[in-house]
Amino acid sequence: MKTDIHPKYQDAEIRCACGNIIKTRSTKPVLLLGICNVCHPFYTGTQKFVDTAGRVDKFQQRLAKTAEAQAAHAAKKKKK
Q: Which 3 state secondary structure label does DSSP give 66?
């Protein structure tokens, strides 16, 4: 068996966006999470509403930008 090929297993912190810190062991010293058991709606029993209108608006803006780029490319191609 080869020696010194395994990563170092050390104490680590798991940090959530809500501010919760969990101590554990890992090959990385710090792990960042977006949601944990303290702030997840399934465990807390509270429901969070996601701003779906913001997502739709972003999609429509990207779609409009793509349509403009395609129109500009078609006009450039037609001009030649």
A: helix
